[in-house]
Amino acid sequence: xxxxxxxxxxxxxxxxxxxxxxxxxxxxxxxxxxxxxxxxxxxxxxxxxxxxxxxxxxxxxxxxxxxxxxxxxxxxxxxxxxxxxxxxxxxxxxxxxxxxxxxxxxxxxxxxxxxxxxxxxxxxxxxxxxxxxxxxxxxxxxxxxxxxxxxxxxxxxxxxxxxxxxxxxxxxxxxxxxxxxxxxxxxxxxxxxxxxxxxxxxxxxxxxxxxxxxxxxxxxxx
Length: 222
Fold this sequence. Notes:
GO terms for molecular function: hexosyltransferase activity. By secondary structure, the chain is α/β, with parallel strands linked by helices.
């Protein structure tokens, strides 16, 4: 998780991550130079939980912040990005892992991407981000207009090894113009497999202070 001035919704999101079922979670958070109460909230969680690790950094921007976390992560079976203001279903990570096991070979570099329930600040349902039959447009389509959201992504260890390999990394300046999830999707499409789950296992808050946005919404009632 990368944070920046997220005091309003941060605690609720951290709780949903720590309460994931069926998996063992290690939560790594990098704060990108917050000047509100975000740092105090993070310190409280780090003191309370052994599996919450905090890094405080200078403002680098969302793409660089997330990639710094990915590069410094400890080896694990799976890796996921998290926004600071969403709400995860208790089975978000477990469902993604089961989907990967079902749809891909164990030797594949795999990136799971899920759908999103868009909600407002009060958690009122607005829309689904992607249609059930969303079409993956491949490497070039992903480079030009990536439809997948980083906060839904779960990758396996094989893909993580390729992404964090120092010989294969782009310069960090690359992420001044391209956000982290666009790069991860492009790598997965080029060397591995991207699998899309039309079912949403999270709520994505759409509010004025959010630092990422949704470009397409599929209007649809619950």
